[in-house]
């Protein structure tokens, strides 16, 4: 959906990169198997991290091999074997994709609404299946996006209130073990990651939103020079990353520790720097946008 949550590949061990790729391909396969081929087009790097958090931290589900629908000429690729955690990540990916389309239907221009309407119809069956599989997350997404839409309608100048709504949305996607300490740590990890995603995306869209007269909390909150706004936003982004990192240290990550630490402490700062400098748009389409 957003694609900001990525590892810094150059700093990953070979086995860590292979594990990350296997989870990414496994999530794609799970989405296609449970919700149909079209759902694969909504695969997100952000939910690859979530899939790792939903998988067992110790002995994982193992690997199998799958054929990539985007590269049919290639041989089969390693991917994470089917697992309930992967299925949940697939369902939550579909739910968030569908609700984002509804948001576009409400706020987009004519052409965006036209495309969103067509995609919503095509994704409707997959969404209904995902809603049945993950009813609690669907309810959370609906409530948080409704709140976010109301804040946008009222053109709320606060950056904290809309960021909080999106942060609670992502926090609702995490696993629940019934153990108070680990569950609170996981909630905080995803909450502050969600806050970071929302604010980075707001800055990334700032110029376009100003041109089209769309709501953007950064434009309303920071009225000074762009450099001052950038510095102020960078400070709150660093704060969110620090809190997410602190929470991650209280989460049992096991085999995923190296990859998650890489994403939080290296990947996010690298993406943040590119976004704040206005260079992310020219790089995000690359296979490895964080490479020099």
Textual characterization of the structure:
- Helix content is 65%, strand content 3%.
- It is mainly alpha-helical.
- The chain has a single domain (9-63, 80-276), classed as Farnesyl Diphosphate Synthase.
- It has a two-stranded antiparallel sheet with strand order 1-2.
- α2 (45-54) packs antiparallel against α3, α3 (84-107) runs parallel beside α5 and α5 (135-153) packs antiparallel against α6 (160-171).
- The longest helix has 25 residues, at 180-204.
- It is globular and about 50 Å long.
Architecture blueprint of SSEs:
Layout lengths: L13 H22 L9 H10 L8 E4 L10 E4 L3 H24 L2 H24 L1 H19 L6 H12 L8 H25 L1 H7 L4 H5 L4 H23 L8 H20 L16
Antiparallel strand pairs: 1-2
């Amino acid at each position: 959906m957003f694609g900001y949550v990525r590892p810094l590949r150059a700093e990953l061990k070979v086995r860590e990169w292979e594990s990350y790729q296997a989870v990414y391909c496994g999530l794609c396969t799970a989405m296609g198997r449970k919700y149909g081929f079209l759902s694969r087009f909504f695969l997100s790097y952000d939910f690859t991290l979530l899939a790792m958090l939903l998988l067992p931290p110790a002995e994982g589900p193992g690997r199998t091999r799958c054929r990539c629908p985007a590269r049919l000429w290639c041989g089969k690729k390693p991917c994470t074997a089917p697992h309930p955690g992967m299925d949940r990540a697939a369902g939550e990916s579909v739910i968030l994709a569908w609700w984002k389309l509804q948001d576009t239907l409400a706020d987009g221009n004519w052409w965006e609404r036209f495309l969103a309407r067509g995609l919503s119809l095509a994704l409707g069956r997959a969404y209904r299946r995902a809603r049945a599989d993950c009813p609690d997350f669907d309810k959370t997404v609906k409530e948080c996006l409704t709140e976010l839409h109301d804040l946008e309608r009222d053109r709320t100048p606060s950056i904290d209130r809309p960021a909080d709504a999106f942060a609670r949305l992502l926090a609702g996607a995490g696993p629940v073990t019934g153990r108070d300490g680990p569950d609170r740590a996981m909630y905080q990890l995803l909450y502050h990651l969600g806050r970071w995603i929302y604010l980075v995306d707001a800055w990334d869209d700032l110029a376009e939103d100003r041109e089209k007269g769309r709501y953007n909390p950064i434009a309303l909150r920071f009225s000074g020079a762009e450099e001052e706004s950038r510095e102020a936003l960078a400070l709150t982004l660093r704060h969110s990353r620090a809190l997410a990192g602190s929470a991650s240290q209280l989460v049992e990550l096991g085999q995923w520790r190296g990859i998650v630490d890489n994403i939080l402490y290296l990947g996010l700062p690298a993406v943040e720097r590119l976004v704040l400098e206005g260079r992310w748009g020219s790089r995000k389409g690359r296979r490895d946008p964080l490479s020099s």
